[in-house]
Amino acid sequence: MLLHGSELNIDANGDVDWGPEFLAGFDVCVASVHGEFTQSKDEMTRRIVRACENPYVNIIGHPTARMIGRRAPIEFDLDEVFRAAARTGTALEINSYPDRLDLRDEHVLWAKRHGVKFAIDTDSHATVHLPFLRYGIGTAQRGWLSKDDVINTWPLAKLRKFLRKGRA
Ligand SMILES: [Zn+2]
Asked: What's the 33 CA to ligand 1 centre distance in angstroms?
């Protein structure tokens, strides 16, 4: 079975590209910060918490938006975001792309302690990027995750229930 999904942009206020009617057509939505990196820590925290509270946002993509060697991670209150992700049933991404590796290992362990679930993916923009999955799995292992913590490993029925989140 193929799930139909999309990556959404989280704007400065924590809103995403489309409204509920359109988002309801997807099985899974990833929402990520791609700009307005210079907000205050409080604003950034509210922005990501708000995205978690959106019933159509299943996964927060590359949560700290870092680009290793090129861009520092954005700053937000990690505990507050991890609590919101756990409370709302929003997974955090472990992005396997070599210049992201985001969340990073120690943040994975920290988030797990809040009860957060994770999605490991490659951020592939070409088929040759798919083997990068190994780096995300390595990050998850360094964060002491097991299968129960990683939604990609779940049986389909359990995954689909998680992806329904608070949707009407
Ligand atoms: Zn992205």
From this structure: 7
- CATH code of residue 128: 3.20.20.140
Between the CA of 8 and the centroid of ligand 1 the distance, in Å, is 8
* pTM, rounded to two decimals: 0.96
Residue carrying the six token digits 């090129």: 70
Q: In the beta sheet, which residues pair with residue 71? A: 67
Q: Residue 31 C-alpha to ligand 1 middle, in angstroms?
A: 8
Token code pair at residue 54: 């959106």
Strand partners for 7: 30
Specify the number of domains making up the chain.
1
Per-residue pLDDT tens over the stretch 121-159: 999 999 999 999 999 999 999 999 999 999 999 999 999
pLDDT band for 168, please (50, 70, 90 cuts).
Answer: low
What is the whole-number distance in angstroms between the Cα of residue 63 and the centre of ligand 1? 9
Question: What is the extent of the structural domain holding 96?
Answer: 5-164
**Cα–Cα distance for residue pair 31/155, rounded to 1 Å:** 23
Instruction: Report how far ligand 1's centroid is from the alpha carbon of 34 (Å).
Output: 6
